[in-house]
Amino acid sequence: MIKIQDQLQKIESLLPEINKENENVSKASVGWHLEHSLLILNGSLKGLTMTNPENYKPKFSVKKFIFLNFGLIPRGKIKSPKQFIPLETPTKDSIEKLLNLAKERLETVKNLPLESYITHPFLGDLDKKTTLKFLALHTNHHLKIVNDILK
Q: Which Pfam families match (predicted)?
């Protein structure tokens, strides 16, 4: 399984490339994909700290099963909620701030109960372990797009 810490290091290593674009791969720049991934990471990690584990209600979902077991996210098909879309052109500074926040929040969630959860708009309630798997898969999806932009 991909470790989020390794992905954060990869994001950090890509900072010099943030202005690169390739319209054939994505309408968005490398920086956009990195910032979007960090916004999702930070929002989800914060969300884990804000829910009451007693209210966790897992439900089976075919979408959740396919995503979590095969990591399939179709490119350009799913619209992200507005709060996870970078508002301005990402800068090295904006990405570094989000990167540092993600590292802090990742440490914070280590001590949370396993039943801490987020409610994903398509996948439903995800417990801590599943949330971390979702975040790794989602970040990997955007890192693959970044790699294709840079080819």
A: DUF1569
For 28, 54, 55, 93, the CA distances from 126, given in Å and listed in that order, are 28, 13, 12, 31
Distance CA 31, CA 15 (A): 8
Sequence-distant (≥ 6) Cβ neighbours of residue 81 within 8 angstroms? 121
Tell me the whole-structure pTM to 2 decimals.
Answer: 0.93
User: What parts of the chain have a pLDDT lower than 50?
Assistant: none
CATH value at residue 98? 1.20.120
Burial of 142 (0-12, 13-18, 19+ CB in 10 A): buried
CA distance linking residue 11 with residue 100, whole number of Å: 11
Q: What is the pLDDT of residues 49-76, one digit of tens each?
A: 999 999 999 989 888 898 899 887 878 7
- Residue 141 sits in which domain range? 4-150
Whole-number Å distance between alpha carbons of 119 and 44: 9
Domain count of the fold of the chain: 1
